Amino acid sequence: MTFISGAADAIIPILVVFIAAGLISLVLTPVVRRVVLRYEVVDHPEARRINTIPVPRGGGLAVCAAFLLVASVFLTLNQGGTFVPIPISLAPSEVAALLLGGAIAAGLGAVDDLFDLRARLQLVGQVALALFAVALGITIDFVANPIGGQPIRFSGTIAAALTVFWIVGMINSINWIDGLDGLSSGVAFIAAATLGIISLTTQVTQNGQPLIAVLCFALAGALLGFLRWNFNPASIFTGTSGVQFVGYTLAVLAILGVAKVAVALLVLGVPIIDTFWIIVRRVSQGRSPFSPDRTHIHHRLLDLGLSHRQTVLVIYGICLGLAVLSMLLSGVTQLYAFLGIFVAFGLVLFLPTRGDFDRPEELEADAYEPEVPVE
Fold this sequence. Notes:
mainly alpha
């Protein structure tokens, strides 16, 4: 991994947006919590859920607001490349797709948080959102060739369909791993920071993408500020508003400028592979792929005897390991690594566990006493 010559110049802008987004998210999350509690937007305990008392959801709105505010201000101040150069390949419509699309994603998720929409209706909204991004120029134009040589290029309908599949898949991957306190937000933080670091290297292009790096770290900062309230024991959950915003934004950031789909595949290997094998398992059992159950990787780890926090930290560790691999490997070897992990995870998800779910003490109701004063 080789950093671009201008990487040092991007450090101060990155630190500024990272800290600013983190502080805004940190302060705004308790405000969002009070609002959603007032309207009784909460996750109630269920057999497949971890929380044993109602916990407010919709905290992703704070992440969305922090990112959009910081990113918009920075992009305005950076017009003409004042702080970091603007990639020639980055069109204004693509920036609009990132920011406006992220706001729409959070809005659609907030509607679900409020009304508990059916999964199929959510899917329709996600496809419409992905088509909106494609209409504004967000497309996957190529991916690394797994047998080497020139990359595989796409255009027209195929590129559009692949992009829609990528965005919808990313949203649902983040959504389906959102089963433990701080899990989806922590995994997304690792992914955003990794994409940011790689954007400062020659792995993408010889000149890198410092502006994309700044935007990635703005998202990472917003997620870290929220994680203070979302880590076990969580005082607020991300909610559909959060997972849709984060999934959409990560998907778009991965393909802005020069496609980094192979990087995102590897870094987000845990939620992506978990989602795939869960769908395979449900369909093989004659059930709908949207039917809820307790067969996700985090449920498996809990059933093996790990505590709530241990499970989250183990998955964090796996994601960090994959992040390091993504920075050390090239596009083709990244795909090979992803395929290897794909098979390994499939074996883990299909292996039998002890079956009974014993709740550790930290999952009991008194562990979820609110840390934020309720007004």
